[in-house]
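Researcher: Re-running this chain for the archive, since the previous output was lost when a drive failed. Same request as before.
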Amino acid sequence: MLNPDLIYENQKYVHLMLGSKGGIGKTYVLCYLAEYMLSIGKTLTIIDTDTANSWLKETKFYNAVDFDMFDSDKLISFEKVPEIFSMFPNRNLVIDTGANSYSAWFEYLSNGGDKEIQIYGSKLMIHVPITPGSSLNECIRCLEQLVDKNFNCRFAIWLNNSASPKSSPFTIDDFDELPIFKKMERQLPFVTELPTCDPASRKLVNEIHDNHYALSEIADASDDKLRSYTLYHRPASAMDKFRANYYRDKILNSFNVDIKPRCFHIYKESEFDEN
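Model: Regenerated structure tokens:
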């Protein structure tokens, strides 16, 4: 079982969502990572650097800080990145990025940004979603590019089969067979396979997100508060709350059960609890 106190070591982390492909679930992963961290009592600040997607900044639950990545020439610039860490030193940061800002973040890290983050009192964990179907090869190429740079960081891999429900699932066992796994296993605290959901739950999750709510808002709402949430021109119902709770629990539980045994062996002394 993942021990949150050990995996985060009571040390501040910069959790950076990275992927060179759009639509693979970077914001999706960020939301559930944030909800998980909050559920175990961590404090965090969410930073939105995705210049092409306004969903996170428009969803009030996450209270995301909108950070402008554009320089004076209206170009996305890696030189803007250090401002984030000077503004929020020694904090748990969860940072969303877009496919259009991937190159800027990659350039920042390649120019010593991974070490600069440590100067500001934090460690770096790079989170990479991998989705099946047409995006799979691009996701793996992106991961290979990041791993080959030998950044001073750890990696978290999220197998996001819900992003392509009609494709054959890409499982933890599939990931274990990739050559890249051997290269990165000592940097790999965990791999988790995010659960898919039934059609009715998927429809509800889409309604919740399309209306700029978080899953936890519906799952934790009191009966009176629940009716104030509007989902596609209808008030949220007790069944919506039940389904939201069920799916959220599946997501959060996946953080605890889908831990690769090999990572257990490598990290159990300092980062994992076998209970």
